[in-house]
Amino acid sequence: DIQMTQSPSSVSASIGDTVTITCRASQGISRWLAWYQQKPGKAPKFLIYVASSFQSGVPSRFSVSGSGTEFTLTISSLQPEDFATYYCQQADSFPFTFGQGTRLDIK
Amino acid sequence: EVQLSESGGGLVQRGGSLRLSCAASGFTFINYAMTWVRQTPGKGLEWVATMSGNDDSTYYADPVRGRFTISRDNPRNMLYLQMNSLRAEDTGIYYCARDGVGGANWFDPWGQGTLVTVSS
After folding, report:
1. 120 residues of chain B, pLDDT tens digit each
2. Nearest residue to B62 via CA among A53, A22, A96
3. Which residues in chain A have their CB less than 8 angstroms from residue B40's CB?
4. How far is B117 from chain A (nearest CA, A)?
5. Closest CA in chain B for residue A56
6. Nearest chain A Cα to B63, which residue?
7. Mutate: best of A31, A46, A64, partner B, most B CBs <10 A
């Protein structure tokens, strides 16, 4: 199975800050990676699919980069609604696997 | 509007069975593969099973293979997960999700989830 590792596990930031979350795959997955956002008590919400740059109505302050084994999600000019937990998911091969999550808190 | 709504969760004894349902609306159901994902205290988000839209292909995670069965009723826009021989580690929130366009393996949207609790 492909292991997905996110860093950091948690980060505190202020409104207006820029935050970068890293996701590493245990083997190359080209650009077959998706990012999700989850708020407490809610289901995960799809954000971006790296391979096609497909975004589901996501503000432009969210951007992604990477390929192979290392990927980043950058959120610029943090807004109050961005404070949540973020997950990456490899979409390269079965079994699809998720990172452990990065919790983004307000400082 | 695309919507998914799960039901069927609950409290069950170890070794018991449950059948989860997912009602889909707002899109042409047969055109999309569908997936179950669970969120457990021990392992976080975990992909469980996927079923193709129209050729009955199914795929399972190793921990559930042989115990869980994914199925769908395309005319009724319904997705199911039959769970047998339940274990404590199966406890969690179960979400159904639609796969990406053209069979891309991302999941959007997700249902609100249904809680499964397996007691010992």
Report:
1. 999 999 999 999 999 999 999 999 999 999 999 999 999 988 899 999 999 998 889 999 999 999 999 999 999 999 999 999 999 999 999 999 999 987 789 999 999 999 999 998
2. A96
3. none
4. 17
5. B108
6. A95
7. A46
